[in-house]
Amino acid sequence: MENNIKRGMLLGLLGIVCFSLTLPATSIAVPYFGATIVGLGRTVIAAIIVSIIFIIKKESLPNKNQVKSLIIVAVGAVLVFPLLTTFAMKSLPVSHGAIELALLPLATAGFAMWRGGERPSKRYWIASVMGAVIVFIYAVYLGLGQLQKGDIALIAAVLVLGLSYAEGGKLSKELGSWQVIAWAILIGAPFFILPVGLSISIDILQAPIEAWVSLFYLAVVSQFLAYVAWYGGMSLGGIARVGQIQYLQPFLMIGFSVLFLGESITWLTIILAIIVVICVVIGKNTPVTK
């Protein structure tokens, strides 16, 4: 039992580290490949890998009810979140995005309560409002008095992915941890082939090696393997216990933005990240009622 918890925590940490590199990789790849290839092309590449795995393992098809939930996961994790974050990274620094994505655990908890027929307590709503207000003020401050389109995109991405995470966590109990994102990828990929194909031009061959590495990182790791580690970690170590590792994500994102993108980080960013995470911890761990 103790070994499973340790393995679960390690897998969960690995998943969060991988997720934390998503925004930096997106920021590097977008200028060379464009939003469509980066946002949707990653799923097409991931689908090839998933198809090979499914053929080897001879996975059985999900039932009708599972497909409905998989569509929700696919819309959030495979379509909307990659596109919105890709759009946002055209104009926003990664450290800025890290503050807004810090609300993701809180959004996930809220949707999980809703899907489970539970009612969040007042403490949950107070923490949610406090975290949202801080993020809003920070975004307006950096936007010189106005909310930028990239901020709106990231906030929408948090809400959509929160619903997708909650639905995926619920479905993983019956379908299997990694199978959820794998089937979601296969459901979404066929719809992306045409727009991705139309977006490919000869110019992408001039992209530097770091852009290609970033694109394939997004496809292979961010879109698939990170989910395998994350869901696998929660299944071994417990959702509540392993889920706490998610609080490290905004700080890892900020660190990676400095390391790989050379962004300068202010004390205001660090302090607000800490405050937002505290709000998330309070809100996510609050009791609920049926």
From TrEMBL:
UniProt keyword list: Membrane, Transmembrane, Transmembrane helix
Task: Report the subcellular localization.
Answer: Endomembrane system
Gene Ontology CC terms, in alphabetical order = membrane
InterPro entries per the record? AA-Vitamin_Transporters, EamA_dom, EmrE-like
Instruction: Please report the stretch or stretches of sequence annotated as the EamA domain.
Output: 7-137, 149-281
UniProt keyword Transmembrane, yes or no: yes
Q: Please indicate if the UniProt record lists Transmembrane as a keyword.
A: yes
* Name of the protein in its database record: DMT family transporter
Which segments cross the bilayer?
39-57, 69-88, 94-112, 124-144, 180-205, 211-230, 251-283
Q: Which protein family is it in?
A: Belongs to the EamA transporter family.
**Topology class, membrane:** Multi-pass membrane protein
Concerning PANTHER family, the annotation shows: EAMA DOMAIN-CONTAINING PROTEIN, INNER MEMBRANE TRANSPORTER
Look up and give the organism this protein is from.
Lysinibacillus antri
